[in-house]
């Protein structure tokens, strides 16, 4: 009987017996495919997470702070299942992180590149900046990482040197309006003085004309009454005489 021919592969070189650690033994291409598939799946997962971001509003208190004042960025949204809050400054292409904050119960604060010691986080992920300057002007953005859906919001900080014209003076009269009011008051005072003078000059003449009338009327009335009395007496005497002359026939 003939002996079987030896295998062309050397001893220990079969796929089931890989002599070196990490050798694929013919499975290198399939391993690379597995890694590529995993990378694609992770990219899809990150893209899905980005689509699920919820946009929230961010308010400023005060809305237009003056130089040297404090300002607070207050993000809206929910604080349920919030893992961390990241505040950044600048546009998306030139954005610099300020700090990363983990709210209670495991509160933690991690300052970043744009942190200068004036920024302070709060339990609701708001950010407080002390003593603002013109260098603080810019776009600020917050990224709230949550277990369900992340939240993203932004606000633009505008620092002013003095109060805006609407807030500086409530409502002030112009110089023309003040001059008009003064002229009207002067004219009114002059007219009132003329009326008082004319009224005072008319009062004595009226009293002088009324007194003689009363004096002249009273004597004439008395004389007329006195002259009427004899006439009535004569009429009574005539009636008595006429009654005596008339006798019954």
From TrEMBL:
Highest taxon above the source species: Eukaryota
Transmembrane segments annotated in the record for this chain: 177-203
Keyword Lipid metabolism applies: no
Keywords in alphabetical order: Membrane, Transmembrane, Transmembrane helix
Record protein name field: Carcinoembryonic antigen-related cell adhesion molecule 3
Source species of the chain: Podarcis lilfordi
